[in-house]
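Page 42, continued from yesterday. The earlier attempt failed because a stray header line got pasted into the input along with the sequence. Redoing it now with the clean sequence only.
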Amino acid sequence: LLGFLSCIFVVFVIITRYADPTADQVPRPSVVPEWPYSISSFMSALPSLFFAYQCHVSSVPIYASMADQSPKSWLLGTNSGIFLYLKKFLVAGLALIACCFVYTLAGTFGYLSFGLDVNPDILKSYPANDPLVIVARALIAVVMITRCAQLKSAI
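This time it went through. Structure tokens are written below.
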């Protein structure tokens, strides 16, 4: 929950700085390309799209916390009831839809703000002395530290 709320705050910062840029912020580009320049530039973005959701990172602690660690329970849930099975996939599906929505907002407004000059780490594109950006970086750091601790304890 902390990770999702932190991502929501980062999106809030990106949208806020798009609507109301600070004086130190790089000015918006006059032209923002709508299509990739070449097929190779499009293909080079595919790995980022495929691994953007980082679902594989969460699978280790989830599997380690399961009472029944068999392949069947991993795929079908701990009980064999069809409603429990559907509920787990519904929750996972809603979580992925929420992540997709949040990431799309961040990417769209970050790209509109900086165009081709956007930094791969969107928060590095903003001035380092911006209080909202400092809080967003701190929240992301806390999430990363606690997430790595969960992964280490699960292994």
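Notes: Helices lie at 2-19, 39-50, 55-65, 71-76, 82-114, 131-154.
Reminder to self: strip header lines before submitting.
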